[in-house]
Amino acid sequence: MGGTFDPIHHGHLVAASEVQSLFDLDEVLFVPTGEPWQKADRHVSPAEHRYLMTVIATASNPRFTVSRVDIDRPGPTYTIDTLRDIRAERPGDELFFITGADALAEILSWKDAEQLWDLAHFIGVTRPGHELSDKGLPEHRVTLQEVPAMAISSTDCRARVADGEPVWYLVPDGVVQYINKYRLYADPRGAPPPVHPPNDHYPHGAPLPVHRQTHQQKDHALLPQGDS
Length: 228
Prior knowledge:
There is one protein chain. The protein is of the alpha/beta class. It is built from nine helices and seven strands. It has helices at 10-23, 47-58, 69-72, 79-89, 101-104, 113-116, 154-162, 173-182, 198-201, and strands at 2-3, 27-32, 64-66, 94-100, 121-126, 142-146, 219-222. Strands 1, 2, 3, 4, 5, 6 and 7 form a seven-stranded parallel sheet that branches. α2 (47-58) runs antiparallel to α8. The protein starts with a strand and ends in a 6-residue tail after the last strand.
């Protein structure tokens, strides 16, 4: 599941679980963006914070794993680069790319858009009652799916923290504690303290992502938000 994850919330997790079940996927790979080019006009929390929150949020599900591929790649993050790198790492796997249906509507403007269809099947998730449209997209490479929890948004979570309001049950408990520890979003204009985790990017006591091989060939879902 790719995306900014600033912060990751239950909408992301429910969408990942729903799609995993519907498509019988072996694994859902969460891929936090490094430098999201489409969000260059606003403050985005440091990638290491967003990565660690994603690790915390997904650690309890054996079918969820987290990748640093976008964080460790220098320069702006584009979906085409994400898919190419994942494909190079897992050449025998079938990839599914999960994103918001509103972002999917803009996919034709993404970098190297005409090459995306050869790399993954795209799944657009949205909240119930939202009008779905796949106009201009290849029917055999796109699926649209309603997910109730998509009504939760990272933007609202950040605003609630900035206003001193709780985000319990909107984001996982461990992520709430992480936000409080590092005072993320408390001052939208200020930068949070940096993270310097030991042991190859993992802090003491942080849960490690779980990797599970269920078949010789695996199905993977990547969940970015927009051309992240």
